[in-house]
Design brief:
The chain is about 40% helix and about 10% strand. The chain has eleven helices and eight strands. The strands form two sheets. The protein has a six-stranded mixed sheet, with helices on one face. It has a two-stranded antiparallel sheet with strand order 6-7. A hairpin with a 2-residue loop joins strand 6 and strand 7. Helix 4 packs parallel to helix 7, helix 7 runs parallel beside helix 9 and helix 10 packs across helix 11. Keywords: Glycoprotein, Hydrolase, Signal. Belongs to the 'GDSL' lipolytic enzyme family.
Length: about 375
């Protein structure tokens, strides 16, 4: 016979349990860490630490100071961390005030999948850095006594078992296409895609051999819609003012990337993959810019490419005109600096993709460890 005190308590427990289960669905994955690989779309400080500082006004909207991000505020990877209730990722290459307890960010501005692009930190290097990081963490942990493990690893470093329980995220490939467009013909860029994706598959396999099991992979965005692309190649624009040939190549890249993911899903039996259609989410935002409260998507907030090339964070006075001042309200712009998205745009895109609406299979990121092998 239950007492009057016990029954309400059991009801409360039952309600909480049902809430956690999402009404009978699979529970959240409880990822202990995120390990991210990518380019400037998800760099949280690597380029600033390794090569040159990402200067103000970058970071002004959210952080109030430069944060190593090519943005006025947060990136999609930051919104991923927030959604998973984890801290923002420290850049692996940064040595000041870094905390790797819940993961590390190997993404670096300018990076590509293949070597030989804008940055020396291509995906193969990022994977090597991860392997070195994991090896050192495991070695140090195994040599520490119990009390030191608690103090040292409790605050700054992941535990060895966190690597198999982490989420592995990718947002890379845009620079492979961008570099190709600048240095070769469109036909050559298209011909390079299979080799680019072969190297991507190799990177995934290396992570799998290191114990990685859950992968969240962004496809590449509509590169032809970047204001920078439109300024330098406006010969063939679509109905939204985007460079049609560049977007067609990006779509071809994404189709082949999805096929590769399906192959990896079949070959790596213990792995779980979610392919995320960031292209469609971003193109939807650009198509609906006015309705979503944004200005013309071909405009941008910081820097200048019209007449004089002034990177965001720099200023120049030419014939009495000051170039390089940021706009008054970045939240009205989709593009922050002509190449990278504003925090407002990143937040809009993140709100669409993290719930699973643009994912294959259609699963929210919190439950991506339960993504079906055969969606």
């Amino acid at each position: 016979m239950y007492s009057s005190v016990t029954l309400p308590f059991l009801c409360l427990v039952l309600i909480q349990l049902l809430g956690a289960l999402g009404g009978g669905g699979p529970t959240g994955c409880g990822f202990s860490a995120i390990f991210n690989f990518g380019d400037s779309n998800s760099d949280t400080g690597a380029i600033s630490a390794a090569l040159s500082e990402v200067a103000a006004p970058n970071g002004e909207t959210f952080f109030g100071h430069p944060s190593g991000r090519f943005c006025d505020g947060r990136l999609i990877i930051d919104f991923i961390a927030e959604d998973l209730k984890l801290p923002y990722l420290s850049a692996y290459l940064d040595s000041i005030e870094t905390n790797f307890r819940h993961g590390a960010n190997f993404a670096t501005g300018g990076s590509s999948i293949r070597p030989g692009g804008y940055s020396p930190f291509h995906l193969g290097i990022q994977i090597s850095q991860f392997m070195r990081f994991k090896s050192r963490v495991t070695d140090i942990y195994n040599r520490l006594n119990v009390s030191k493990k608690t103090s040292a690893f409790g605050y700054r470093m992941p535990r060895p078992h966190d690597f198999s329980k982490a989420l592995y995220t990718f947002d890379i490939g845009q620079n492979d296409l961008a570099y190709g467009f600048q240095h070769s013909a469109v036909e050559q860029v298209i011909a390079s895609i299979p080799d680019i994706l072969s190297q991507f598959s190799q990177a995934v396999r290396q992570l799998y051999e290191e114990g990685a099991r859950v992968f969240w992979v962004h496809n590449t965005g509509p590169i032809g819609c970047l204001p920078y692309s439109i300024i330098y190649d406006n010969s063939s624009l679509d109905q939204n003012g985007c460079v049609r040939p560049q977007n067609e190549v990006a779509q071809d890249f994404n189709k082949q990337l999805k096929d590769r993911i399906l192959q990896l899903r079949a070959q790596l039996s213990a792995a779980v993959f979610t392919y995320v259609d960031v292209y469609s989410a971003k193109y939807s935002l650009i198509s609906e810019a006015k309705d979503q409260g944004f200005v013309d998507p071909s405009s941008f907030c910081c820097g200048s490419y019209y007449g004089y090339h002034i990177d965001c964070g720099k200023k120049a006075i030419v014939n009495g005109t000051v170039y390089g001042n940021p706009c008054e309200d970045p939240s009205k712009h989709i593009s922050w600096d002509g190449i990278h998205y504003s925090e407002a745009a990143n937040k809009w895109v993140a709100s669409r993709i993290l719930g699973g609406s643009f994912s294959y299979p259609a699963v929210p990121i919190r439950k991506s460890c339960h993504a079906s092998k055969n969606p």
